[in-house]
Structure formats: structure tokens, C-alpha cells
Amino acid sequence: MVGGNLLSKQELNKALREHCHNDDSVAILSKSDEHSAIDVLTDAFMLDDPLFVWMAQLDDDEKDQEEKKRKMHKIVKYFQSWVNIRLISGRRGVAVGIHDDNNKLIGCMTLAPSSCQKERMLDTFISVIQLGSPPMYKSKHEYGEHSQKRLERSKVVATARTKHMEGTPKWIYVQSIGVVPNEAGKGYGKRMMQLLIRTADSLKVPIYLETESEGNESMYHHFGFKTLEKLDVCVPDDTSPTAHLTMYLMRKDA
Questions:
Q1: What phi and psi values does residue 86 have, to the nearest 5 degrees?
Q2: Does residue 240 contact residue 146 with C-beta atoms inside 8 Å?
């Protein structure tokens, strides 16, 4: 399939700008927003996100909660940086930010058009140069014995994405969407999702996302998403109590 048949980041960027110009609190982010946006997404996913908890495989009985929090923060910030920096900078996608009344960034949504959603070898190389190797490789003693293998196994999610969107040239992938915890429940995430849906409808393209929370799956149903698959992610030789992670693979058509 030739690249011209795919949704480009220029098309997505232009459509998003057309639909967010009436809301002063919503803006397209740029490279200068990288650090603040990554901090927002790290805070949003820090507490109990099932994917990062599964990947870190931390000891539930650990008494030092501050140490446990430090380890989680390291994992979450690393992977939020890995998957989102090139979207926030505009190199591979688009990021939308939402601000409070003091113009402080409190929410972020990162999006990849179908022309950019597959990671290239060059992207991987640059990320390793910028971020180093994943925390579970640098500090093996800090994370569970299956943590490295769980990271490798998580690639089945991207494989399933390719399978489900095969034959659909133009579509939008939601990489991350989050709001800082002290602002959660105030409708900021809903506003970002509604902006995305308006944009996708104007482009006449579907939206694809993954979530690891049954509660989030139910919420996305209210936005018109359908669950395509409940994917069980597990390392074959992992028999620990936390071995299985369920990923909900979802799509919303225009």
C-alpha cells in the first residue's frame, strides 16, 4: 500500500486545529512541551495502571511504599517518554494538551495517524540513545524475575493492532490519554476525547485504542467504541499470581 493512501500527520494536525480553535484551554503541543506533557502522563498513569504494574512485577508485600513508588515512577516515566516524545514533538504524530485556568498543563492526549503508528528501527535507535535501556534491564534486582520477558511479550499488543486494522488505510491511533490525578473527574479527559471524535468524524476515519482497565473499557463504550478483542498477555513460563494481563482492543468507526 502506498504511503499516500494512509492518514498523514499533516492531515491529522490540520483537522485537530480546526476543531479545537474555539476552546482556549485546548492546544496542539510542540517540542517545547515535551517535559511537561511527559510529567502529566507519568502522573496520570503512576498510581495503579495495570499495564505498568504488570510490567514492573513489584512485590505486593514490599513494606517501603516510597521505594515502591520510586520504582514505579521510573518505569512509567521511561515508557511514557519512549512512546510519546516523537508524537509530542510532531515527528510521528500529534499531541493535544488541556490547560487549567492558570494555563498549567493538566491533561494530554497523544495520537498517531496510520502513516506513523509503526515504530521504525531508526526510532528505536534514537530512543535508546536518548533514554538508555529500559529500567528492568538496567536494574534487574529492582523488578520481578519476569519483568524483562513481560516487556518483550507486550509486543503482541502491537501485532494485534496491525491485524485488526488491516485493510483500513486511514485511521487514528490513541497512544495515550491522561489527566493529572488531582484534576481527574472534572471532564477534561471527556473534552479531549470529544475533540478527537469530532476530528475523526470530519476526516471520516476510525479511531483505534487499547486499554488495560475494564472500567475504561466501559467508559469508551459510552463514546461509541466497540471491543474487538480481549487479549490475554502472559509470558509462557510465568506462573506467578500476576502473570496475566488483559488488554481491551477497541475501535470506533466514523
A1: -75, -20
A2: yes
37: CATH: 3.40.630.30
How far is the C-alpha of 85 from the C-alpha of 82, rounded, in Å? 6
Number of domains in the chain: 1
Give residue 62's identity as a one-letter amino acid code.
E
Distance CA 56, CA 59 (A): 9
Q: Is the pTM of this model over 0.90?
A: yes
pLDDT at 159 over 50: yes
Domain containing 125 equals 3-252
Give the best-scoring range by mean pLDDT among 130-134, 137-141, 224-228.
224-228
12, burial (CB in 10 Å: exposed 0-12, middle 13-18, buried 19+): buried
Q: In this structure, are strands 172-179 and 207-211 parallel, antiparallel, or unpaired?
A: parallel
Query: For 10-32, what is the mean pLDDT?
Result: 91
Residue 146 sits at φ, ψ, to 5 deg, of -100, 5
Contacts with 123 (C-beta within 8 Å, 6 or more apart), sequence order:
86, 92
- Yes or no: say if 10 and 178 are a contact pair by the CB < 8 Å rule: no
